[in-house]
Amino acid sequence: EVNQHVLIPRPETEELVELIAKENPKAKLIFDMGTGSGCIAISLSKKLPDCEVRACDISAEALKVARRNNKRLGASVSFEKQNILKYKFPANLEEMLNLDVIVSNPPYITESEKAGMDPNVLEWEPATALFVPDDDPLLFYSCIAELGFFLLSSEGKLYFEVNQAYGKEVCEMLNDMGYSRVRLIKDMFNNKRFVKACI
Questions:
Q1: What is the 3-state secondary structure (H, E, C) of 162-187?
Q2: Whole-model pTM?
Q3: 3-state DSSP: the chain helix, strand, coil percent, rounded to 5?
Q4: Pairing of strands 29-33, 99-104
Q5: Rounded to an integer, what distance in angstroms lies between the CA atom of residue 160 and that of residue 177?
Q6: Where would I find the beta strands (DSSP E) of 16-171?
Q7: Considering the domain 11-198, what is its CATH architecture?
Q8: pLDDT tens digits for 51-107?
């Protein structure tokens, strides 16, 4: 289910799910940051039934959609309302300090790119899930990467869907922060769409 409060899932996001499931078949704890409709988290929960999948979003309306999808599809994702940019660590922090995977398809379209976008996207999908300031296009990636140092296990991995115009910059940022084995991966359309990094 999708509505005006969530993004419509794209086929390349399915590729991201397949990549994570293939590379992390024994994952025990995955966190999807900025879940929207829940498509990534729910798909991973179905593909990796022995894994606990958690997800967050800033939008209460998006979380309602995600919870309905979770129930309808028989998944077992736990959802929470969180602002990624002002992330509040839970009281039971110890439970969150051993994540195998953090995945995110955060807002990554710059305001200046808005003019070239299709009306069906601008009119039907929430701006808060799409756009970042022109002067800080890596806003969400840098914040999530910093959280990764606290939340990921010693073998943990980050997976991002990225704006193809900034894939190289995301990789450079992660390398500068101290992540290892940083990779930029192309999607089915030959666009530089995914970034993977290890602690």
A1: CCHHHHHHHHHHHHHHCCEEEEEEEC
A2: 0.89
A3: 40, 25, 35
A4: parallel
A5: 16
A6: 29-33, 52-57, 78-81, 99-104, 109-110, 131-132, 152-161
A7: 3-Layer(aba) Sandwich (3.40)
A8: 999 999 999 999 999 999 999 999 999 999 999 888 887 666 666 668 999 999 986
